[in-house]
Amino acid sequence: MSPTSNIKTFTIDGKPVSATEGETILEVARQNGINIPTMCNKTGLTPTGQCRLCMVEISGSNRLIPSCVSKPEEGMEITTESDRLLKYRQMILELLFSERNHICAVCVTNGHCELQTMAQRLKVDHIRYQYLNPKFNVDGSHPKFEVDHNRCILCGRCVRVCDEIEGAHTRDLRNRGVKTLVITDFDTPWGDSKSCTNCGKCVHVCPTGALAEKGKSVAEMAKRKHFLPYLVMRRKGASK
Amino acid sequence: MTNEELLEIVNKEAEDNAKFRYRLGVCNVTGCIASRSNELVAGLQAEVKSRGLENEIQIKKVGCMGLCAAGPIISVEPEGIFYREMTPEEAGAVIDSLGKEPLHEKIIDTANEPFFARQEKNALENSGVIDPERIEDYIASGGYSTLIHAITEMTSTDVIQEVLTSGLRGRGGAGYPTGLKWGTVAKVDSDLKYVVCNADEGDPGAFMDRSALESDPHRVLEGMAIAAFAVGASQGYLYIRAEYPTAIKRMKAAIKQAEKFGLLGQDICNTPFSFKVDVRLGAGAFVCGEETALINSIEGNRGMPSLRPPYPAESGLFEKPTLVNNVETFANIAGIIKKGGKSFAKTGTAKSKGTKVFALTGKIKNTGLIEVPMGITLREIVYDIGGGIPNGRKFKAIQTGGPSGGCIPAEHLDTPVDYESLKALGSMMGSGGMIVIDDTSNMIDMAHYFMEFSMQESCGKCAPCRVGTVQLYNLLGKFQQGEATEEDLVTLEELCDVVRNTSLCGLGQAAPNPIISTMRYFRSEYMEKIKPSAPLAKEESR
User: Fold this and answer.
1) A180 in reach of chain B (CB within 8 A)
2) CB < 8 Å to A98, chain B
3) Complex ipTM, two decimals?
4) pTM for this one?
5) What pLDDT, in 10s, does the model give residues A31-74?
6) From the CA atom positions of chain B, what is the Rg in Å?
7) Is the pLDDT of residue A1 over 60?
8) Is B375 in contact with B349 (CB distance < 8 Å)?
9) N or C, which end of chain A has less CB nearby within 10 Å?
10) Contacts of A99 in chain B (CB under 8 A)
11) Domains of chain B
């Protein structure tokens, strides 16, 4: 390493840590056993900072920053847990729960759901907002998979994995605001998609039961969580 | 095109104009076109023709004269008379009056009318004077000479220094110092850089940029070209919303004319400086006024904001250094370079220099487009320039900054208009929309209206803005109905806090502002709507 090293030293929750060039606060925190809550982040995919759960405090600033996309600076003092952060995180989760129709008791991923797990972790036991109860359709036109938009939290992981890892870019978004919908191709039924390779990566990165394999009953749809980091690691190795 | 050739055009235009005994200008931008300005022009031309006076009277379509409440306006030169609310039916009478008694009942007393007297024009200097569809007219009023001067006799550092001296701050609303932004883009080393003009004006009640583009398109182009020279860019994009057809038509025509005259394109004025401008149309998303979303949209992607840093100055359009400025910012540039930054900085307050264009709308007599020196008080704008509140009603508040801003009540009317003072009141400068509210309006209704706007325009990327705005909107609905409880008030305030502090981009972060500011100044209106929390009714429990 050259004498002018790019290593940054800083603290997370009082613990001295260091980061190399390009590492985000979230990555460094995880390396040091600090588990910052995230929903949209997935190792192996480009972080987008859109779920806003991974916001952290920086001493000397009132502004919160999303740790998944922010790079640390020398001497930064980062706080990942505080009353304020917990309150915001709880409220954001409650907003997500109020947005669509998340009914665990009838969900294929009950017990394996990242949204459910996060709610338990952050001790969200009731929703203070009015449920919006929108009506969304279920698309079961694909022979192997199905999508239930009622359970989607618009984290964008399926869109990114399809584009960045599979290279198909079958999925994208339409509409805006709460009406935003993940679509296949030009909003054709999934089964009619010309670009979908039937790889199923989207299903397994989906944090909730929005994307599931067909034929799974309540609580049967456990996702394969580790294929993506492994795949990314192997690809990196191949390109070296 | 050289300076000499430019002067030739100036002289020729002066000669041509001198031929006419009378020159009539007719307001011809969107607002007045809707009030039959095109028919009025056709009527005037027909009347002139029927009298055989084509060589004596010139009829010219000009840009916005500002006093939209009295539009369409006809200006008569050399007399300097302005006629208000003209209709095509009155065309004959106007022509007949030339050289005789003017139409007294139609005259606007510009000398004594504070609407005109209190204004100070920089960005709108040529607005309402020149024909926006003719580059010759712009050149005749001194246009493009600044660009030629800059690229032949100044260095890019000189230009940036001049802009820094002027103290000009971004007119899109956030108020970042323009010179600093330019300096940053200039410093970044890259084979390709871009200059982008943000003409995606979307605030309800705002029409500053539209009027500027429609009234004086070349001025914006000149500003962009000077900026490109200063930062070392060779390609420009004008991002304009598709809902502005007249502005688009005039900008496209202006670009063609400037290219034909060699003022845009390759090797401008035989210097190595090349700059091309292309138009890109917005598809109607308010969030595309946010610079990162705008860049995504130009690239052909979904118009969603992305995170900063990296700032566009470093990695923007197609990951190249990009300068993004608002229409009005560019419209100020030619004047700054021509007269010097110091002269521009003479006007205004310590931190906010120059003049600012506002679209004055709502419950006010003189609806229109105004340009005023920074530091003028809101009272002067409302009561002098604006002429006060019509129908004998009382002033209640003025909303600045559109859906991202807030309202300012009567007790703060003596606040000077500058970036910091408005921010301290919980509002913001914004791009320049000013909506006057009288005592017939309820502030919850107003907050509800703006929240509906933000809710519909939220792109859907981050959760707090996407869902939070809907929940805020619904809560305000409960207040409107008188169904709200004290708990709802707490939830409303908490939600405003979370949406403001955790949203990804400026749209979400500023979306609760209309609620926060109406709660700050008109809290009683919210309290009145809270249902008294009755103890469990005995009849029901039995």
Assistant:
1) yes
2) 467, 471
3) 0.95
4) 0.93
5) 999 999 999 999 999 999 999 999 999 999 999 999 999 999 99
6) 25
7) no
8) yes
9) C
10) 463, 466-467, 470
11) 3-117 (3.40.30.10), 143-345 (3.40.50.11540), 355-438 (3.10.20.600), 443-528 (1.20.1440.230)
